Amino acid sequence: MDKLHFIDLRYKSECWSLLEELFPIYRTILGEGFQKSLNIIRKIIPISILEYPSGSKCGSWTIPDEWILRDAYIKNSKGEIILSHQDNQFYVWQYSIPFSGIISREELNQHIFVEENNSNSIPHRVAYYSNNWGFSLSHSQFNYLNDENYFVEIDTELRKGAITIAELYLQGNKEDEIIIDAVLSCPSLANNLSGVVVAVFLADMIAGIKNRNFSYRILFTPETIGPIALHYLQDKFGKKVVGGYNLINLAFGKGFHYKKSRAGNTIADKAMEHSLKHFGREYELRDYDVLTGTCGNEKAYNSLGLKIPIGSLHRSPLGSYPEYDTDQDNLGFIDEDTMYESLKVCWGAIQTLERAKLYKHKFEGEPFLTGYGLYPKIKKDIDRIPYDYLMGFTDGDMSLIDIAEKAGISITDFDQAVYQMLDKGLIEAL
User: Fold this and answer.
1) Distance, CA of 288 to CA of 410 (rounded, Å)
2) Pick from 335, 315, 394: which is nearest to 362 by CA?
3) How high is the pLDDT of residue 292?
4) Of all residues in the chain, what percent carry a pLDDT higher than 90?
5) b/e map 387-410, b = 16+ CB within 10 Å
6) Which architecture does CATH list for 358-429?
7) Strand intervals (E) in 188-336
8) Superfamily assignment of 66-159 in CATH?
């Protein structure tokens, strides 16, 4: 593996172990499952906790109450339980209100959701803010609902609580901040959770960088309401952000897909594109959009009024495969090697960011490298490329990413030339 994407092999098994531990936990946007997941993550990286109580106003949004699910099932006319949330956590819609009683099949149908494109899957469904209840079924289960009446029991409670956001802030030499965001509020969706796992170990590696250039804020959030709460309730949040990434669905798919930030040309957008270009897998770059079903937290960060320039990295586009947001997105569906590759690509973007400095020439006219003791050490013409491009484009306006892109080589190929030309006083870092 090239220098840009090299990481310790131990991260491969550690990523998978963390995913296996997080996967069975029943999570929603706040509550016990979310807290339990954070306690597991805290064993790996030293996160701190931000809490915002139920009822807090965030512009037009309100922090919801905590939802408690005790029991949920449907009985047929014979009194037999035909489905129970204890058998599959996806059966009951999250945030269903309490209900108990006998209803007709026609009425029950108004509270059932079936996935159109996958006859065997049970889709994930939520009822946030809707004052409604419901069940998700597979097509085959739905087709067996032939009785005239059914008994429905949904034993749930809404009570005051608080949404929780975990963060790890890593100070750099510059105040300029890079955000890495991963949504933790999904239930047992393995591919969705892979973004959390990659963010955890990416944070661990960033913490090990000595003399960091950028500052980094790694966030584990509930979807949508997390970024909105941070904007309204966390003083000065986002003011120093110059770019960042939402990580999601990173363990299934052959290539990579990167949706740029609204700005489209941040230092983070450039760094991710550079990492993808030099990784050797197919990749697609997309401009920012808000098409329903294709968005994660990047939509909230980039929304008008916030405009925090966050891009989104995933392997397969959201909603592009039948298993998406269903119980079929399990540990057997995803791939350990694919998730490990995703971590490498993210690390390549960080490596690029850390080298993305501005350099200014201190010479007039093309330097005589032999006189500086450099040219005899350059054995091949191809080895001259970093020196030539540093001599030609260190005007103080182009970052090293821009220069590397112009040269058509990896930013890590400039390491030796930058060091030597700094040492000889030919260039200076701004």
Assistant:
1) 25
2) 394
3) 80
4) 91
5) bebbbebbeeebbbbbbbbebebb
6) Orthogonal Bundle (1.10)
7) 215-221, 241-247, 256-259, 283-286, 311-314
8) Domain of unknown function DUF2172 (3.50.30.90)
